[in-house]
Amino acid sequence: MAKGKVVLGMSGGVDSSVAAYLLKEQGYEVIGVTMEVWQPLSQKEQQLEGGCCGLSAIEDARRVAAELDIPYYVMNFRDIFQEKVINKFIDEYLHARTPNPCILCNRFVKWEALLNRSLAMGADFIATGHYAKVVKLEEDLYQGKYTEKTKGAICNSMGRYAIKKSITKKKDQTYALYNLTQEQLRHTLMPIGDYTKEEVRDIAKRKGLPVAEKPDSQEICFVLDKDYAGFIEKEIGYCVPEGNFIDKNGTILGRHKGLIHYTIGQRKGLQLSLGRPVYVSKLLPKTNEVVIGEETEVFTKVISCNDLNHMAVPRFPTNDLVMAKIRYGNKEMPCRIEYLEEDKCLCTFEDSVRAAAPGQAIVFYQGDIVLGGGTILA
Questions:
Q1: In whole angstroms, what is the distance from residue 115 CA to residue 41 CA?
Q2: Among positive and negative, which fits the CA dihedral 90, 91, 96, 97?
Q3: How many degrees, rounded to 5, is the angle at CA 323 between CA 319 and CA 328?
Q4: What value does the CA radius of gyration of the chain take, rounded to a whole number of Å?
Q5: Residue 178 and residue 48: Cα distance in Å, rounded?
Q6: Any idea what DSSP says for residue 241?
Q7: Alpha-carbon distances, residue 36 vs 20, 232, 336 (angstroms)
Q8: Which pLDDT tens digit goes with each residue over 181-233?
Q9: Which distant-in-sequence residues (6+ apart) come within 8 Å of 227 by Cβ?
Q10: H helices of the chain, where?
Q11: 221 catalytic, yes or no?
């Protein structure tokens, strides 16, 4: 008898393909599904870019499902993807913030929309090929690690679900999964969290999966040429206005192409000849200005955040250090958390962090466990 019915999101890549194999070997009834969310202009473009949502992805996933002898379906999630990911992506950039569309896609499409449809089909779980693990905390997360005052101020984490880092730091994807809910995690399997990328490819080769050597997909599947500004202007139907580059004192330094072309910490593409390296230190949407400064001006020790998601704990610790990451590729840094409101925190780092961009996620860790996180405000 099968352990349960699992709907697996198949991107046509090696990770989700091996996830399908591992789940079947573990005794689950596996159903492969590719989520059709964004249709590129042509199959050739999709193949060149190695995206995860288009024609080549569907064909590769279908071939893997046939090889593994599992049912396979393509499901249309274009409307929810447009609403929750693309529209939000555009709106954030237009308001001078730097969004992470993969986090939005994970939360609202790959989990919420797929899980709801899967449960309606009679499935017990959904699964993905992410390099992470789902764990149920069997003991107090703070036991022996924090002060008595801290432990008494928060609820016990026992029985909560959380995301745990994969065994490979190089491919760990927990940062982009911090926003999942307890209900979503309860129905989630992540079978490749115990494997390195090299081991996953070796499994695919040994089992003769046709995508064993397929390159990894790009980060943002719907912007094939990485021209975010061009994509936004095409979607909204007009060019965003130019404005002034200024220094911190308000002195005009030159003209910029539009706020959507810039993010905090950016140095390249400014086209300013000031005789020294300069960086974007702030975006001012009310006046349509980009503030330019020295590299020291893009460092900070204090970040505020909202839209909090408490994952491993019902409330973040406020008397002890936690580790925090402000971008996917950044290393974790120690900080202290202070609640300003129920859904707003102030995070004070021991050392300065670089380029904390409003709109990006800040994710909190204790060891290998994701405590949760929020969206950076300033």
A1: 28
A2: negative
A3: 145
A4: 22
A5: 31
A6: P
A7: 18, 21, 41
A8: 999 999 999 999 999 999 999 999 999 999 999 988 766 778 878 899 999 99
A9: none
A10: 14-25, 43-49, 55-68, 78-81, 87-94, 101-105, 114-120, 148-153, 182-186, 197-206, 228-236
A11: yes
Tokens of 47: 């193949």
Which residues touch 333 (CB under 8 Å, ≥6 apart)? 323, 324, 325, 326, 349, 350, 351, 353
> Under a CB-based contact definition with an 8 Å cutoff, are residues 277 and 267 in contact?
yes
**Of 49, 68, 92, 25, the residue nearest 360 (C-alpha):** 92
CA distance 161 to 133: 10
Q: Using CA atoms, how far apart are residues 201 and 219, in angstroms rounded to an integer? A: 20
- Is the pTM higher than 0.85? The answer reads yes
State the catalytic residue, choosing from 52, 53, 102, 105: 105
Q: Is residue 105 among the annotated active site residues?
A: yes
Place of tokens 């492969």: 32
Q: Please give the full DSSP string across 188-205, using - where no structure is assigned.
A: EE-TTTTS-HHHHHHHHH
- Of residues 221, 335, 345, 347, which has the active-site annotation? 221
Q: What is the pLDDT of residues 57-101, one digit of tens each?
A: 899 999 999 999 999 999 999 999 999 999 999 999 999 999 999
